[in-house]
Amino acid sequence: MKTYLKTLFALAGATVPFGLAAFACSSADRDEAPEHIAPAGDELIGAGRFGDFDATTDRNARRMLERGREIFRFDTFGDEQFWGGELRLHEAIAGVTPAQARDLGLKVDAGALPPRLRDQIARGQVALDDPAVTLRLLRLGAVVGVTGFFDDRGGLISIGLQCAFCHSTVNDSVAQGVGERLDGWANRDLNVGAIIASAPNLQPFVALLRAVDRDITEADVRNVLLSWGPGKFDAELILDGKAFRPDGTSAATLIPNAFDMAGFNEHTWTGNWGSVPYWNAFVAVNEMHGRGNFFDPRLNDRVKYPVAAAARLWDVKVAPEEDLVTSKLPALHFYQLALPSPRPVAGVDFDERAAARGHDLFTGQARCTRCHHEPLLTDAGWNLHTPEEMRIDAFQANRAPGGSYKTMNLTGLFIRERGLFMRPGNKGRYYHDGRFATLLDVVRDYNERFRLGLAPPQKLDLVEYLKSL
Ligand code: HEC
Ligand code: HEC
User: Fold this and answer.
1) How many angstroms is it from 114 CA to the middle of ligand 1?
2) In the chain, which end has fewer C-beta atoms inside a 10 angstrom radius, N or C?
């Protein structure tokens, strides 16, 4: 079994284009697969056959975590065939200055920088108007979530994206946008739409969206992408072709955090797609355009998902030896479940006494624990609620199979409220579309929607409690 798996990994690595194995094939591929305990057979019964089972389990956990981290940070799943090969995004990136890259929300991993360069950046001695610096950062593998592929003469010939592109940021320890990686933290500055819109060729999106609009042009696609803004992405666009809400604003949603996800069932804002490993497979294959298998017959629905049905996104098949996704799902899942949420500090991030009063309101008068069960802060069990229950519009809920909203878990809210490691203009923003600017706005709205009768000081106490989670 192990030999078979190893052969698969070797083959998978070999299919990556440009032959740049060092970058293209993440070292995760070369790691050993999780240890499998042999199935019981007659000769297996007896002392020692299974060795020290607990020690094997511990080793397995460590291995899965390390492999998962590697995949989350560095694996492109072969998606450079799309971003570089089809969209030619690298041609646009090659001309981007470091200042422009920063403004697009791209982050730099200080851990990948040689000490001299790190010092120069800290002292502001790096030319922010020179695209050659951007290329150097790419060559160092220092741009979070982006892998550059280079030819022998140092020319950028393709580009691939990783999960970390959207779901990691840095702690600004060296300079704004330059620091240690924070995996799972949504990159609230990242302007995904503007980055994709800069690609010379958007025909692949035109071809997809023709299913809903025969006359669509590249300029239309570009307008849609530019309507998203920082910290947002529209994962359902390539399924239902809906680019705007009925009121004409963008249909994109906020990029959620991908930490603190253990212990509950449904994920994504609207839930009911499935749990984390479902979404991981869907995103790697259909959003990032990696090479892998994906199956979900619910998307074969010409009314609800005209784009997905026409392009057969519900049944993507590649040969096992070409599949760069499926073998990575277990470790990727494991790593994500291990990612902790950041912990706020009393007296710095929140007021302790006010938060204690707020807690009484959260579980009492404000009835928040009807859905945000402590300490999960989402419902234990079926963590979805209809728009009627939520007393909000159904637009986004209806784009998902269940027609519901997932009770978002509430840890780490203080980061967004304080605007840590993000540009001031991108802080706050709550609910799937970011409709509430601050936590006080959220609480005020709950107070009206559910007639909670909270007095102004009580609302402030509840906000302090939310910041303490
Ligand atoms: C281009 C940006 C982008 C990339 C790249 C990306 N995601 Fe996401 N991710 C999102 C957005 C936006 C959502 C919310 C989607 C929704 O609710 O419709 C999301 C949701 C999620 C969720 C659910 C979180 C929650 O709160 O329930 C998980 C888990 C996740 N992504 C994992 C991944 C993994 C693993 C990868 C790499 C295979 C990845 N994502 C790549 C943007 C991205
Ligand atoms: C009926 C179930 C329900 C109740 C009751 C409820 N919530 Fe929520 N909560 C949700 C759902 C569902 C979401 C996600 C909404 C969305 O997708 O936009 C959410 C989202 C939030 C968010 C935004 C999270 C984010 O990342 O943007 C905050 C903050 C919040 N709730 C706080 C509260 C507070 C405070 C109360 C009590 C006053 C409360 N909730 C009561 C279901 C509920």
Assistant:
1) 31
2) N
